[in-house]
Write a sequence for this structure.
């Protein structure tokens, strides 16, 4: 039983110290990164060489829906 305590106690303490160290180091590095490179929210920049124009007779939106038949009202509206 003594051997388990001798091996596991230093491992637990080392894990806790390592965890706190990584936490505080990452927190400091994240704050430094935000100061030097602020985040910019907006539309992404297209990659170099990419064309932003669309070909003629084409649009990015879907084509309008055309209904060739006249829709008639339902017959059983009186029951509603």
């Amino acid at each position: 039983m003594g051997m388990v305590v001798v091996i596991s106690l230093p491992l637990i303490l080392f894990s806790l110290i390592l965890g706190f160290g990584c936490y505080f180091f990452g927190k400091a590095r994240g704050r430094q990164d935000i100061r030097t490179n602020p985040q910019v929210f907006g539309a992404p920049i297209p990659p170099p060489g990419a064309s932003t124009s669309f070909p003629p007779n084409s649009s990015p939106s879907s084509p309008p829906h055309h209904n060739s038949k006249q829709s008639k009202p339902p017959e059983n509206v009186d029951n509603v």
In short: Residues 10 and 55 are 67 Å apart (CA to CA). Residues 1-27 form one domain. DSSP finds one helix and no strands in the chain.
